[in-house]
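Ops channel
N.P.: pipeline sanity check, posting one input/output pair.
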């Protein structure tokens, strides 16, 4: 069975085969079958945009306390990452949570993120767990597509309605919360649904049969084998 409408979104690039959120991982995603790449962006002390999942480097230094020139060579800028992903679409996740050391209630990194997005040519969606950060994206440039990331869906109907009211185009729920009912609810609201993070072939096929629009995975080659068989 072929699920041609289900996008394969490489989680932090081809992260099973290469160090995550690196240029090598991004470049490898397409040849392994991905349509899209998911990556994470944080701010440095001098206002640069660093592509890195955690708020701290492995040595414990906080990215927000470092200048761009102090970052390891393995940590690309957002512009470098977007270039490495071309021509694939990119899900840019803005990291800005209250519990993180780099949290900024004003979401000042939004403006440079939007500028970097507008300077590239491939399809982009901006996602975040932090609703106010996505609100800031829409205030800066309402033409930028946004998707709300969720982990614990205690009230799916309310969450979907809130996403619609906020102007988002997608819901990005955690895999364990996804059911047929949720998929129908999201689609009935006119949104797309991209599920994270799924590596099990049987679950990938199950989600595709539910009609999800995208599957975020560390193994795009495995997903491609399932969805394009």
């Amino acid at each position: 069975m072929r699920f041609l409408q289900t996008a394969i979104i490489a989680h932090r690039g081809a992260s099973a085969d290469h160090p995550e959120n690196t240029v090598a991982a991004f470049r490898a995603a397409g040849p392994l079958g991905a349509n899209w790449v998911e990556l994470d962006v944080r701010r440095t002390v001098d206002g640069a945009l660093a592509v890195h999942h955690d708020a701290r480097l492995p040595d414990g230094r906080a990215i927000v306390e470092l200048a761009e020139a102090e970052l390891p060579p393995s940590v690309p800028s957002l512009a470098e990452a977007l270039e490495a992903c071309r021509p694939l679409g990119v899900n840019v996740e803005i990291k800005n949570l209250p519990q993180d050391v780099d949290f900024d209630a004003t979401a000042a990194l939004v403006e440079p993120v939007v500028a970097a997005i507008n300077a590239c040519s491939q399809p982009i969606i901006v996602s975040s767990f932090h609703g106010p950060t996505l609100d800031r994206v829409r205030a800066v440039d309402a033409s930028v597509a946004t998707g709300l990331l969720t982990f614990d869906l205690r009230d799916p109907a309310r969450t979907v309605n809130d996403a619609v009211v906020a102007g988002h185009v997608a819901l990005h729920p955690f895999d364990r919360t996804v059911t047929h009912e949720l998929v129908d609810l999201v689609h009935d609201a006119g949104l797309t649904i991209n599920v994270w993070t799924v590596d099990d072939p049987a679950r990938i096929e199950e989600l595709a049969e539910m009609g999800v629009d995208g599957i975020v995975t560390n193994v795009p080659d495995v997903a491609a084998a399932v969805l394009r068989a």
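N.P.: looks fine end to end. Residues 54 and 60 are 10 Å apart (CA to CA).
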